[in-house]
Amino acid sequence: xxxxxxxxxxxxxxxxxxxxxxxxxxxxxxxxxxxxxxxxxxxxxxxxxxxxxxxxxxxxxxxxxxxxxxxxxxxxxxxxxxxxxxxxxxxxxxxxxxxxxxxxxxxxxxxxxxxxxxxxxxxxxxxxxxxxxxxx
Length: 136
Fold this sequence. Notes:
136 residues; alpha/beta; Rossmann fold; five-stranded parallel beta sheet; 5 strands; globular
C-alpha cells in the first residue's frame, strides 16, 4: 500500500540535512509555501553564519530533486483558514500543512512538537521512521 505523507518545512530541512533516502513507494505533498519557507530558513542560517552557503546549496539541490507535490488551491486555503481559526492561531502557515494532510495525505511529518500536538486532533502524525520505512 502506497503511503502519502505531508511534509512540513522543518521536516523537509531535516531530510535535506541528512540526505535521507525516501522509499519510492511513498508519495509526498506540501503546501506551496514550503519552497519559500525552506529558502528563507537556509538564507537566514547562512546570513547568521550558522551554515555555509555551499551547505545551503546542497540542501536546496536535494530538496529540488525530492518528489514533493506542491499544492495551494482554493480548497486548501479554505481548510487552512478554518483550522487556524479553530486553533486560534495568529496566521495560517502551519494550518496549511494540516489542511494539505487532510486533503491529500495519510499522515503529517512535522518536527515542531507544538504543531504536532495541535495537529493530532485533525490528522495522523508520522515519524521520520514512518517516512523512511518502505512498504513490502
